[in-house]
Amino acid sequence: MKKEELQPAGIFKYFGDICFIPHASKHEEKLIEYLKSFAAEQGLPVKCDAVGNVLISKPASKGMENRPVVVLQSHLDMVCEKNSSSKHNFDTDPIDWYIDEGWIKAKDTTLGADCGIGIAAQLALLADKTLVHGPIECLFTVEEETGLTGAKALEPGFMTGDILINLDSEDEGELFIGCAGGIDIVGTFDYKTEPLPENQTLFQYTVSGLVGGHSGDDINRGRGNAVKIATRFLWQAQQLYNVSISNFTGGNLRNAIAREASALIAVDKSQAGALTQLFAKHEAEIKDEFRFSDAGIQQKLTETQGSADSCLIDKATQTRLLHCLQACPHGVIAMSHTMPELVETSTNLASVKFVENNRIVVGTSQRSSVESAKYNIARMVESVFSLAGAEIKYGDGYPGWAPNIHSPILTLTKAVYQQLFHTEPQVKAIHAGLECGLFLEKYPQLDMISFGPTIKNAHSPDEKLHIQSVEKFWMLLLEVLRRIEG
User: Are residues 196 and 159 both part of a single domain?
Assistant: First the structure.
């Protein structure tokens, strides 16, 4: 199948346009300009607020002017993750997407179907004058992936609808009516440098090939965390041998499970052989433990040469850092009692980075559908950082979206889905964060639902979009819009 043969043609046409426009979080300005130009070409009203949120309105079809205003919502930014071998520049390069056995994928990077396919559906709806619906408002928010900035800044009155359909879900056949709230904690270590002693052997340690994924949707799949795996080796090495760390980097974004990590370490030459034996044991253990979830995992320990300015972090800080990372919780903390398959509470040890001014920054993210549990797991992580002597900083956090099983838009969408596809959709809450909870703070009257096509492995270079599910998603959306009444 060729790209131009994909159906629905309108959605995939606009998805291709979106992939061509760089739109990393905090760098959505080119996509915002594209939306403004699109609205002008279509003769549709458009407005933009102070942070960059865009609203494009489309009048009702003839005879449906008295129907309620419906807001369709997606976010403009994408998660920018790539394999270490990729030279892709997310600030300038288009996404290199291709078709593979019924799926759309990207070459060595995230695809951006989260939430590019939602944007594309909105544009296809706005552009098609033959569709039947009441008045529509299409809301495009900024910086969802890095802190829900657009949703937090949304002012009352910017949109007028009382019904909102969020297009940021990733499982066709599932209707979402709730989501987890979240908060981030960053721990920072200050360190002193020490010169590299004589009679040392330098090793480069790497772990790669992990599946990674979304820290909400995929946290319950038992996938390996590169920071945790690397820490496990470094912690054991420090306990047994005179090992020093020169650099340690792993993971990237707070909402992605760490896929890769690396460390430059030094050991007394007399202990180099023993360290390689420890690594061999560690490598075999990890490969066995993650043989089902991360069959492609690779670890390497390679002797390397140091430069003239090679230096180590001081041993006291190294010890505090490794104990902190070893003890820091990661993964599912509790499952829901009301929805047994739903993760209630989790935490993600997202990243460790050596930054300028002799600082080491550890990023984490906590989620829960229970507000008190969200803060409890955050305090657990805070306590680990505190015991390790790190400087602690909380993010702003965001609220969850409490399910309403009596929602009129849910009732309608369920009925439409069953009539179209002759099967019952699943009604769920999602452990990932959606902007819906923040919308309710500004627009408490909103009746909301979230659905979308099937996207797998979001927030990783293995992200892929199921082509056939896009057509079902489009059919459902159009029929729901056609049948919404006052």
Answer: no
What domain range is 172 assigned to? 3-179+401-483
The answer to whether residue 147 scores a pLDDT higher than 90 is: no
Q: Provide the residue type at 485 as one letter.
A: E
Peptide bond preceding 19: is omega within 30 degrees of 0, i.e. cis?
Answer: no
Q: How many whole angstroms separate alpha carbon 201 and alpha carbon 96?
A: 41
Half-sphere exposure of 75 (CA within 13 A, CB side): 30
Looking at the fold, whether 11 and 130 belong to one and the same domain comes out as yes
User: What is the CATH classification number for the domain harbouring 130?
Assistant: 3.40.630.10
From the list 77, 218, 294, 479, the catalytic residue is 77
- The residue among 234, 294, 288 whose CA lies nearest residue 266 is 234
Do residues 142 and 16 both lie within one domain?
A: yes
CB atoms within 10 A of CB 251: 27
Contact 36, 46 (CB under 8 A): yes
- Average of per-residue pLDDT values in the chain: 96
Three-state SS at 459: coil
Q: Given strand 447-450, what is the order of strands in its sheet?
A: 46-48, 54-58, 136-141, 70-75, 163-166, 447-450, 174-179, 426-430
pLDDT number for residue 307: 63
- CA proximity to 159, closest of 408, 435, 399: 435
Known catalytic membership, residue 144: yes
Question: Catalytic annotation on 41?
Answer: no
pTM as predicted: 0.84
Q: How many C-beta neighbours within 10 Å does residue 246 have?
A: 19
210, 297 Cβ separation under 8 angstroms: yes
Q: One of 28, 81, 143, 144 is an active-site residue; which one?
A: 144
What contacts 348, CB < 8 A, 6 or more positions away?
A: 215, 219, 225, 254, 255, 257, 330, 364, 365, 366, 367
Residue-level pLDDT at 267: 97
User: Of the residues 369, 394, 419, which one is the last residue of a structural domain?
Assistant: 394
Domain closes at, from 394, 427, 448: 394
